[in-house]
Structures
1.
Amino acid sequence: MSELVVENASVDYGSTVGVADVSLRVNSGELVAVLGPSGCGKTTLLLAIAGLLPLSAGRIAVGDRGLSSPSGTVPPEKRGVGWVPQEASLFPHLSVGDNIGFALSGGARRGGARGRERSARIAELAELVGLEGLVGRAPNQLSGGQAQRVALARALAPRPDVLLLDEPFAALDTQLRVGLRREVAELLREQGTTSLLVTHDQEEALTLADRVAVIRDGRLEQFGTPEEVYQQPASDWVARFVGDVVELEGEWRHGRVSCALGAVEAAAVGFTPRDGERVRLMLRPEWIVPRPDLLARAAAGADARVSGISYAGHDAMLTCDLVTGPRVRMRLPAVELPQVGEELRLAVQRPGLAFAA
Ligand SMILES: Nc1ncnc2c1ncn2[C@@H]1O[C@H](COP(=O)(O)OP(=O)(O)OP(=O)(O)O)[C@@H](O)[C@H]1O
């Protein structure tokens, strides 16, 4: 069993808080993304799990094997925790094969039974990451994507209980990044590797992970499935951080918010509003849709004029000026788009989120 348990973990750098009271459980074989802005404590959390930073409070364990607590830390090499760094950091004087096999025993005595076992494992991993023809190459003869594959194979070689990936795709160009990260996520799932992936890229976290841990100022703001953190953010900060939002002022009345888009059904987050109370309505741009069938007088809707279109191929972001004043953004599939200047009747197709004003 290789469930990773982090319980009320805190790491202090003198007077600076690295992470504070973070609790999360990564199930065996699960891929969890740790998402947060720069400086929020993502790397600190990973370093603590790797045994490179001591805890000032809490505990870290894999299954029922305790790894870190304020009273002691199992050294990094004995934790069964693998690490894939941001830059591949391969050993320049070793071949691809020897880089992959670096943490395997039997390296010194080639040819013996252990040496043969090691070679077989290197070949198996090289094939797994799609580098079977390149084991004899030097690291400086690899592309950035190939080097990252070697770093992944090297980390997987000793069959770690838990794999930590610290922004492993950040240095790659967009097209390569998207392809490689999908491949790596599939590979980790196939291998059943319990993995924690640090990223500041919302799309990366939402598309790859089984669950996402959103961190802010060293604290865990939300831990949930990609759908939960996107559709039901725990706070207005998470709502803004994990995706685009449209924000409107309004008044709460019987489960709806009366605002510039009409009377929009909404769920209150983190508070219980009174009827008549001022609230802030948050919507995702794709929750707003044109509804030509909706009567102009309908309470759930508003008239608008398209003032701008930002085309992204698969979809487009439209800026619309509501006749009631505010400007909203709306995301539509780029199949049949309206024109700039066109008048639309807009409605909200799913309940919005109401936050305290
Ligand atoms: N060695 C250190 N000494 C003192 N403070 C540190 C040290 N390392 C990190 N910090 C502070 O701890 C906090 C968390 O830093 P951390 O590197 O974990 O953030 P991060 O989320 O990984 O950021 P980034 O995405 O920019 O890498 C920050 O306020 C940072 O300034």
2.
Amino acid sequence: MPEQPSFYDALGGADALHRLIDSFYGQVLQDPLLAPVFAHFTPTHVEHVVVWLTEVFGGPAEYTKRLGGHHGLLSHHAGLAITEEQRARWAELLLATAAKELPEDALLQQRFAEYVEWGTRIAKSVSQPGAELGDPGPTPRWGWNGPA
Ligand code: HEM
């Protein structure tokens, strides 16, 4: 039986993630509920989210090497006080974009959606006033079987 491609290769690698995230933030910045949260959006934002997702889904571990790893990622959300409505809209828009930009494969779309649900809940939780980041451990990995 031929070997199954890695999750990262199956989703199309960094190019696919770049198309996905670029298109996603184009919509986020037009969304009445989310645009105010991203008032200080910078051109590096898309790039850094792509680097993060690349590592999570099994590509090169560049976020850990260059951008502060898991703790660095969480600290970007500190103090944002993300509401459940904002979290849910962010996730909904990303999944709708993934349905268009990532391969149709049902398991791939499902695992991606599970990661987004998990990750957005953590982002919301660490964004609340007074939340402690602690030591979140290494950058999470996610693949065909869910969390690795
Ligand atoms: C899986 C979930 C998420 C991931 C992987 C993620 C990823 C990231 C990354 C990599 C950055 C740093 C960007 C940079 O270096 O310029 C960032 C910043 C940010 N994220 Fe998220 N994010 C997630 C969820 C959310 C949610 C749900 C919201 C709000 C609805 C949000 C709002 C923001 C904002 C406002 C910033 C910029 C903060 C600043 O000014 O530094 N994020 N995010």
